[in-house]
Structures are given as C-alpha cells and as structure tokens.
Amino acid sequence: MNSPETGVPLAVMDCRWLTAARTAAATAITAKFCAKKGASVMTIVGAGVQGRMGLLATQEVLKTLKTCKIFEVREEVASRFKALMEEHAGVEVMVCKSIAEAMEGSDIVMTCTQKLPHPIIPAESFKPGMMGGGLEAGRAWPGALLHGVDKVITDHLEQTLSYNAPGVFEGGMPTFHATLGELVNGTKKGRENSEERILAFNIGFAAEDIALGQLIYEKAKERGIGIMLPLMEVEDIY
After folding, report:
1. What are the TM regions of this chain, as residue ranges (predicted)?
2. What is the CATH number of the domain that holds 38?
C-alpha cells in the first residue's frame, strides 16, 4: 500500500485474504439485491477458499440462509468444507453427488471453480426465482442461461466487456442489466419479483483490494498492530 499523495510505502500485507474477502463481499452484496425474499438454500459448486468465503459473507447478509448444498469433485475438500462451515457459518451443509442434485430446491447458485473448458451448469436446473453467478466469468454457465435469464449483473461493465474471448461467455457477451454499484445506489433495481432468474458475474477489480487494504491499514494503526519495517538506514549514508 502506497500513499496516493506522496507515493510513500504505507504497508505490506498478504493480498490472498484481501482478494478472497472482497470477492465474497461482492457475492453477498449481489445476493442482498438479487436473491428472492426469504432465501434459505445456497448451492456452491467448488468448495475451496472462494466457496467458503462466499458462504460466510452471504450468510452475514441473508440471515434467512439455513442450508448450503455443495458439489465438489475432491472428497477431502468437500469434507473439510462441511466441517468448517457447519461450525463457522452455522448452516447445514449437504454434500451432493451431482450439480443438478445440489441445485434442486436452491435459491442461490454460485460456481467457484477454475478456468473451465465448457459450461457445467445444467440449464434445466436453474428454476424461476433463482439467483446465480460465477467467479470464473461465464465459463460455467451455458449460453441458454446467459442469454435467456431475466437480468444479468456485473461489478464493472467496462472490465467485464474486455473478457469477450472465446469460451468466456458461451454464445457471446450477454446483455447486462446493471452494475453492482447501480443496484447499491438505487439507480437500477435488482430483483423485482419472485419469479425472476438473475445471473451475476462479478469479475473483480483492483480498486476493491485497495479499498479493503486501506481499511485494514487504518484499523491496524488504531490498534497498534503490525511490525515497523526499516526501509532506510537511520544514520546518514555518506
């Protein structure tokens, strides 16, 4: 972290947690505006760090959330997710054998996987009233949904449009209804009825990391936490 006024280094910190936290926050804020009222079941495809953080953040925003259904190809990762999230998120975790099974009866579906070669979400399982999204852009979602749902949301339109490469969004770039910022400031509406199907692709951008990093830096100073690093000799060098 550097001072924007002088360029002086302010802090050195691990950005892995920052990225995981701000990505999860974007998911949670989207759910606040786009999940249907009383949403109680969340589906997560991919039970790694982003999946865990996404559940924790969403559970903070949606107090009605009671159950998380997961699909994960690695059994040990699924078991760890279940143990950790039942303890820390306070929800029931159900490990499912297929994505379709994990989506059955769900209100929110999030894919937290990798750079996929083809879509993995079954279009017929994305029912009216569901909210969904992917952290791997639109790679997990078939074109029938990308171009067939009621609304598509993103966090930063210009950046998302730059991802218009083969395989990122099947069938080409979808039409975006609003940005996350427009939902927050009330310029545009998120969910307007209980039947809408809404997708959100929050690609993420560095300003989010910087904002969270600045907050952490300020809180650390207030609490006297951290180690001062000498960047120049105390004595004159000549």
Report:
1. none
2. 3.40.50.720
